Amino acid sequence: MIHSTAIVSPRAQLGRDVSVGPFTIIHDDVVIGDGSTIDSHCEIGYPTALAEGAKLEIGAKALIRSHSIFYAGSRFGERLVTGHRVTVRERTHAGANFQIGTLGDIQGHCEIGDYVRFHSNVHIGQHSKIGNFVWIFPYVVLTNDPHPPSHVMMGATVEDYAAIATMSIILPGVRLGQGCLIGAHSSVNRDVAPDTVAAGAPAKFVCNTNAVKLKDGSGRTAYPWRHHFHRGYPEAVVQQWLAEAAALANLS
Amino acid sequence: MIHSTAIVSPRAQLGRDVSVGPFTIIHDDVVIGDGSTIDSHCEIGYPTALAEGAKLEIGAKALIRSHSIFYAGSRFGERLVTGHRVTVRERTHAGANFQIGTLGDIQGHCEIGDYVRFHSNVHIGQHSKIGNFVWIFPYVVLTNDPHPPSHVMMGATVEDYAAIATMSIILPGVRLGQGCLIGAHSSVNRDVAPDTVAAGAPAKFVCNTNAVKLKDGSGRTAYPWRHHFHRGYPEAVVQQWLAEAAALANLS
Amino acid sequence: MIHSTAIVSPRAQLGRDVSVGPFTIIHDDVVIGDGSTIDSHCEIGYPTALAEGAKLEIGAKALIRSHSIFYAGSRFGERLVTGHRVTVRERTHAGANFQIGTLGDIQGHCEIGDYVRFHSNVHIGQHSKIGNFVWIFPYVVLTNDPHPPSHVMMGATVEDYAAIATMSIILPGVRLGQGCLIGAHSSVNRDVAPDTVAAGAPAKFVCNTNAVKLKDGSGRTAYPWRHHFHRGYPEAVVQQWLAEAAALANLS
């Protein structure tokens, strides 16, 4: 399952049933879990002194699509899925079921929880902290330097269930509260309260998220999104979300 | 004309005089028209269940530049031209003379007319509908989900001759009228009338397009652009545009 | 030091101790200086008639990271460093110590000075003029067409020491004065005076740059950045900057 044109270091540790596509390079300091697929034209475990000797650890059942580049010194839980040509630098630590869309650029030195999903072309600056079940949409940038260029690094923090819509920028040190929504094309320079919508440049409070109605004719609220959007989440988690929604409906 | 390092499926159907560059992969479900060139490091016909068995059909005289990825299940008319590292997913249906700039990311499930030109790094969400002779400039995003994440998909519609300037975002379900111009760095949340300029965030009416003067000292109006910009269009089409311009001049 | 899978034209001129990675292509009209490293999956010297016969000249000690593409007809001073998957077209003329971040897209026909640093994913339109010691941050676009599409090309000018923060767009013909700072998410449609901060859409004067304080507890001003940020600059240059800072401190 290793293509004959792939170049795999004898020092790399590949689990059982790992597939490696044509023209892919796997460097020395790499550990890949069982049942993972690495597509063509990838470069996995790109060496860097900044990894400080740490290996690249990719959990079981990963799917890394073609033309992607991962540096040494990062680690990922099970079922990592990427689009094409993602770039992930050293000291990126992510949980299980992380999805990175095509062209994603993760600068490393950041912490990412479980079930986080990045759509295409997001840029995650160093020292970002991202919780669980977070969604980040295309062309969003998380920054870190309040007066570039400088040595001051103030990463953004994104709490669980938050969603950042397309082409928004999160300025250094900003905290996005649990379940908040950042509207498209926003520039966020202040913290955003949990379960609120902020939008604009600079972003301002718009409403509570539960005031946004689903445009599907149901009359239901669109947030928390976990009450109606379940694609790709495990059954146990979805049941918990449905129970939460039912309890909320009984309250009101 | 197939490079010795290229990997071409025996099931792929290549026309006459098709050239395939080094380190390029052509998968099973691919039909490429006569006289086409596929550069190096490409992946053509990436398999996906979402193609539902449909082949990737690329018309004659295509030029696909290096590091590009096309999924199975899309089709293109003659003379497709791409920049480097474009990504085009399944069920993208485009007409003739389509140009996609470097880094373009077409999410699939969309309809695109003839003579459409994307500059670098555009992102086209699923369910977008794009007419003929449309121009889309760098870092423009066409979105589709009014309250992400959700199952509601409302693609944008871009009518013939419209132009969307750099780093603008078109929000879900918006229709851009024929010949309109969207100013750079805009966020468009409402329909835009034909032959008008809209700009800002949120985008608002600025003027009719024919009020914009060409900055070339000629004193002529800059729109409709087809009255003065003809590079790469066929002679018959240009003659029609020139006749239209002459008729308009006689009227005024 | 040429990997066995690399394809290097016998007409390319490689200096001493040049390293070429796997699956990389080096075309005919290429001159690479001593001690340079070209990573894997690159395409160097992509042929184009627009180069008008000029070679691609890369100075000594370059580091070009994987998946990058350089066209024929450009030239670079010593110590060029790139991230991954950069695209640089013909007639890009840059000085020494140029850095281009991952996904950078330089459209060619532009002039760039010494010690210029682009972070990830910048787009430099044709006819841009960039001075020395300039910083450009992610998702910044320099445009050139005042009424797209047209034949009028008015490149932007960026003077020495200027910094353009993330996701800003510089409109055609705009001049950014020496040492100015463009705030993140700005759209700049007018010239910006030296040593001032401009921000917003459209960008407006905010303050003089020396009114911005460093967020490091030092109480010092954040600009000119050269008075406190020295990473990667040569000792002689840094000493000059420190002397300038000391003289300024004595004045005040």
Please, could you describe this protein's structure?
3 copies of one chain form a homotrimer. The termini of chain A are far apart. Chain A folds into 2 domains: 7-210, Hexapeptide repeat proteins (UDP N-Acetylglucosamine Acyltransferase, domain 1), CATH 2.160.10.10; 213-252, no CATH class. The first copy, chain A, has 1 helix and 30 strands. With 252 residues, chain A is mostly beta strands. In chain A, the strands form 4 sheets. A 10-stranded parallel beta sheet of chain A has the order 1-4-7-10-13-16-19-22-25-28, with no helix packed on it. In chain A, strands 2-5-8-11-14-17-20-23-26 form a 9-stranded parallel beta sheet, with no helix packed on it. The longest helix of chain A has 17 residues, at 235-251. The B-C interface holds B 5, 22-23, 39-41, 66-67, 83-85, 102-103, 117, 120-121, 135, 137-139, 163, 165-167, 181, 184-185, 200-201, 212, 214-216, 222-223, 225, 228-229, 231 and C 5, 7, 23, 25, 41, 43, 46, 67, 69, 85, 87, 103, 105, 107, 121, 123, 139, 141, 143, 146-152, 154, 167, 169, 171, 187, 201.
Indicate the proportion of strand residues of chain A.
25-35%
The proportion of residues forming helix of chain A, as a percent range, comes to under 10%
Show the largest interface. A-C, 32 and 39 residues
Determine the oligomeric state from the structure: homotrimer
CATH domain topology of the largest domain in chain A = UDP N-Acetylglucosamine Acyltransferase, domain 1
Average pLDDT figure of chain A: 97
The main sheet of chain A comes to: 10 strands, parallel
Per DSSP E runs of 2 or more residues, the count of β-strands of chain A stands at 30
| Class by SSE composition of chain A | mainly beta
